[in-house]
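re: ur question from the group chat, yeah i did fold both. here u go
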Amino acid sequence: MRRAYSVETVRAAEAALLKRVPEGALMQRAAAGLAAACGDLLRRTGRVYGSRVLLLVGSGDNGGDALYAGARLARRGAGVRALLVSPDRAHAAGLAAFLAAGGRVADGPDGLGGLDLVVDGITGIGGRGGLREDALALLRAVTRSHSRTPVIAVDLPSGVEADSGEVHGEAVRADATVTFGTYKPGHLIDPAAEHAGALRLVDIGLGPELPEPPDLEALQYADVAALLPVPGAESDKYSRGVVGVVAGSERYPGAAVLAVSGALHGGAGAVRYVGPGADAVIARFPETLVHAGPPSKAGRVQAWVIGPGLGDGRWAEEAVADVLGADVPVLVDADGLRLLDPETVRTRTAATVLTPHAGEAAALLGVAREEVEAGRLAAVRELAARYRATVLLKGSTTLVAEARDTPVRVNPTGTGWLATAGSGDVLSGLTGSLLAAGLAPRDAASVGAYLHGLAARHGSDGAPVSAQDVAHGIPAAWRDVRAG
C-alpha cells in the first residue's frame, strides 16, 4: 500500500529523525537516491559519463538535494551545470560540494546547448501558491528551448501543492519524481499527480517516525486481493450477496442494463432489478430477478444501488426515498444524487455510499465545478463530513473518503478510457455487489474503483473502450488481482 503524509507530519518526522543521525545525513541519503535515479534515466538513452545535465536550483533544501546529487553525477563524468534561481540564497554547503566536484554555475538559461536531463530542484514540499515570477521566468526559458528533454523533479514538481494536489498557475511537468521518506498527497491526487510522472520513493529512514494512520493511502494488488470476496464450498446466492438495482428510465434504459451488468460481473450472488427497464435487462441478463416496485416490496437484498439513468418524476423521487429508508447499505449515483434528501442521508443508520463526479459533487456542495476539480481532496472530505456518508469522488484520480477520521483512499488504476458514457453505471453496480457481499463501505468503494480501472485496461487493450467493454473486463481484472 502506498501511504502519503501531510507536510506538517513529514516535517515533524524529519525533526525527530535528525536528532538521531549525524548532521547532513538525511540530505546525503536523499542526494544519493536522487543521483541513482538520474543515472538510471540517463542510461536508458545513453550513459552517465559524458551526459549533459542541468540543475534548476532553488533556495531551499530541495536545491541542496539537487546540488549534492549533481556533485555525484559530476564525479561520474557527467557535465553538470546549475541555474540558480536566487544565487545569494543557494544552499551553501551543497553549492560548495557541487563546484568542488567539477560542476559549473550557468550564467543564464540561454546558450545551454543540448541537454540529456533537467533536474527540477526549484521548490519542494513547502512551496505554496505556485511559482514566483523569477522561478517561473527561468522555467519558461528552459522549457521553451528544451521541451523534449526528460525532467526529474526533486521530492515534488515545483509549483504544485504537496498537501492538496492543487496546482496554481504553471508548474513543472516531470517525467519522474524522486521523493524521500514517504509519499505526499500531491504525488497521488490530480491535478498535481499528472505533473509528477513516474514515482520513485527513496528510503531515508523516516518510516519509524511516521505516525498511524497516514493522511492518504492507495491500495495495491495485494491489498485488493485480501479484500476480494471469494465464495467457499458452502456458499449460496445469499451468502455471496444479493444486490438490488433501481436504475434506468424510458429515456435511459441502457443505464439499467449497465448497472446490472456491473453487479453480475462483480460477483453478486443475485441481482434484483426494479424499474422501467425490466424488458431490456431480462433480454440481456435472464438470471436477473425483476420487480415492478416499489423497491421495498422487491424481496430480500443485502445492498441497494439507485440512481443511474433514473431520470425525474414522481416515481424516481419515491424510489429514492424508499431505498434510503431501507436498513441495508445503499449506493446513490447519478440522478439519485439530485433526488436525495440530505437530512435523510445524514440520519440513516445503515451505510450510505455517494458516487458523484465533479459536477454532481459541486451541486451537492453548492459550489462551482471548477472548485471541485481544482481541490478534489478538500471536496471529497467536505462531502463525506456534510452528508455523513462514504463518498467516492470519480475523476482522473478517484478518491474515497469517510465521515470518520480515516485515511482518504486514492485509486491508482484510473485511465482516460473510463471517460465514456455508462462506465459510471457499471462502477455503481460493481461497487453495489461488493457492498452486498459484506465489504465495508470504504473497502467496497475502493475495491470497486480499483477493479473498474483495471477492467477498462483489459477492455481497451490500447483501443477505444465502451461501458460494455468495461463490464466484460471485470472478471479478467478480478483474476489479475488474485494472481498478483
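okk and heres the other one u asked abt
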Amino acid sequence: MSETAQATAKAAADSHSNRWKALSFIALAQLMVVLDATIVNIALPSAQQDLGISDGNRQWVITAYALAFGGLLLFGGRIADLWGRKRTFVAGLIGFAAASALGGAATNEATMLGARALQGAFGALLAPAALSLLAVMFTEPKERAKAFGIYGAIAGGGGAVGFILGGLLTEYLDWRWTFFVNIPFAVIAAAGAYFVIREPSGSRNRSPLDIPGVVLSILGLVTLVYAFTRAESDGWGDSTTVGLFVAAAVLLAAFVFTESKVKAPLLPLRVITERNRGGVYLSLGLAIIALFGLFLFLTYYMQLVKGYSPVKTGLAFLPLIGGLMVGSTQIGTRLITRVPPRLLMAPGFLLAGTGMFFLTRLEIDTSYASVILPGLVLLGLGMGTAFMPALSLATHGVEPRDSGVASAMVNTSQQVGGAIGTALLNTIAASATTAYIKDHIGGAGSKAQQQLVQLEGQVHGYTNAIWFAVGILVLAATIAATFISTGKPEVGPASGEGAEDEMKIPVIAH
C-alpha cells in the first residue's frame, strides 16, 4: 500500500473512531444555541430594569437575535460548505462566546442589543455547520439514527431547558449569568471540536459565492421575521406590518428567481424541490409554530395565573423534556431503520397534537397532575418521535457539497416557524381574551370579580390559541404522510438524488 493510501486509510479510521466524541461537542453547541433562544426571556424583566430599557424597546432584546439568526442562516450554511464545516463551527462558537460575554457585561441598551445581534449572527454560522457535520460524518443508517436521535432531542427540548436554566440563574444568581453561562459551553465545544472532529475530505463546495442570492436572502428573511414580530406588537392590519409582508414576499420571490438563473446558487433549488426534504421543511416549520406558541402560553399561565416562580415554571416543563428524550432516542432511533420515516413523523405529530388537546382543557383551577403533566408528556413523546427522522431526512439524498445549506434550511424553517408561532398564536389569544372580557366584565360587580374575569379571559385566550396549535399539528402530520415517500434506510451504501422508494444515505469519500 502506498504512503498516500496509508495516510488516507489512517484519516478514515481516525474520522470513524472520533465521530461519537465529536457528536458530544456538536450536541453541546446545539444545546447552547437552542436554549439561548428562550433563556433570555426569563431574565428580560431584570435586565430591562438594570439597563433602563424602555417598554417599547425591550422586545428588541429578543428581536435583534431572531433577525440576525434567521436572516443569516442560509448564508451561514453556504459559508460552511465553502469554508469547511469544522472551521465554520469553531469560528461560530468563538464568536458566540465573545458576543455572550459582551451581553453579560452590558451597561446600556445599545450594547445589549448589539450583543444580541452578534449572538444571532454567530449562531447562524455554527447551527447549520453542526447539522451538516452530522450529515457527512454519520452515513451508516443505524449509527445515523442514533446520532440524529440525540440531536433531535436537543433541538426539540433545548427551548424548555432554557426556561429552567433561565429561572435558576435569574432567581439565584443574576440575569447576567444567562449570558455568561454560554461561555463555558462554547469554549468546551470549540476546543473539543478542534481536536476531535475530522471532516471528511472532498465534501466542500468551492463554487464562487452567489452575492445577489446572499443579499436577497438576508433582506427577505430579515423582513419576514420582522414582519411577524411587528404583527405581534402592532397588529396584523397595521400598514407598516402589511408593507413588510409585501416586501418580504417580493424579496423572497426575487431570491427564488435569481437562484434559478445563476450557475452557483446560494440555495440550489434541488435542495428544496425534492419532495421528501420539502415535506420535512414544511412539516417541521408547522410543528415549531405550535411548540413555540405553547411555550409562551404555558409560561404565562403558570406564572400569571397559577403564581409559579420562574424556577417552578422551568421545572414544570421537565416532563416535556423527558418525553422528547424518550421519543427521539428510544422510539425514533429504534424504529427508523425498521419503518418508513412517514410512519414515525405523521403519528408523532398526531401524538403531539393529542398532548396539545389535553392542554385545551386549561382553567384557572386546573390541576397540574391531571391535565398539564399528561399533556406535556404526550407532546414530548410525539415531537421527539417526529423530530428524529425529520432532522435525518433534512439532508436526505443531498450532495455533500450542499449539506450545509440543506442543514440551514432546517434551522430556517424552525426560526421562521418560531416567529410565526409567537406572533400568530399570541394574536389569536389576545383577540379571544379581549372578546371574553368584553362579554363578561359587565356582570362583575366587585373588584375581586373583575380580576377573576380578567384571569378567566386570559386562560380562555390561551386555550383558543392552543386549539389552533392542535390543528397545525394535524396539518403537519398530513403533510408528512403525503409528501414524504421514502422508505426505511437500507443497511449499506447508496447514493443519489430524490429516490422515491428507499432512503439513500450519501457516502462521502474519505
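fwiw on the second one: Residues 3-51 form the longest helix (49 residues). Confidence is low (pLDDT under 50) at residues 4-14, 491-510. idk if thats what u expected
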